[in-house]
Specification:
There is one protein chain. The chain is an alpha+beta fold. It has one domain. The protein has 2 helices and 3 strands. The protein has helices at 46-83, 95-107, and strands spanning 9-11, 19-25, 33-40. The chain has a 3-stranded antiparallel beta sheet. Strand 2 (19-25) and strand 3 (33-40) form a beta hairpin. Helix 1 (46-83) packs across helix 2. The longest helix has 38 residues, at 46-83. The radius of gyration is 20 Å and the shape is elongated. 7% of the residues are buried.
């Protein structure tokens, strides 16, 4: 199953609600959005809950772009090393390459 299509946004609640709603914009509905998730305010202040929701929205909305950029950087870096223009070493043993490959794999699950 696929996740709800992006972009997502924060839907502002009136004071008194115990959560900040994360939505997919849909201006055909009365609320103007379709709920995806909520960040609860209970146990923290509203400002922190709104910051948490904003962080989630930024991460979701930029996930594919960040993954694409990391894949391109990794391809270019490994290609440069393989060309011999910078010397010769096993690029697959570099900690940064190992980490980048692991992060890409995890992000694609």
């Amino acid at each position: 199953m696929e996740h709800t299509p992006i972009p997502w946004e924060i839907h502002a609640w009136a004071d008194g609600h115990n959560s900040v709603r994360i939505c997919q914009p849909d201006h055909s509905t009365e609320r103007g959005c379709l709920p995806v998730a909520e960040a609860e305010i209970l146990g923290r202040d509203r400002e922190e809950a709104e910051a948490n929701a904003a962080f989630i929205v930024r991460a979701v909305n930029n996930h594919a772009k960040l993954l694409k950029a990391l894949e391109a950087l990794l391809k270019n870096h490994c290609g440069l090393v393989d060309s011999g223009d910078c010397g010769f070493w096993n690029v697959e043993e570099e900690a940064e390459v190992i980490l980048a490959r692991a992060v890409i794999e995890e992000a694609k699950k």
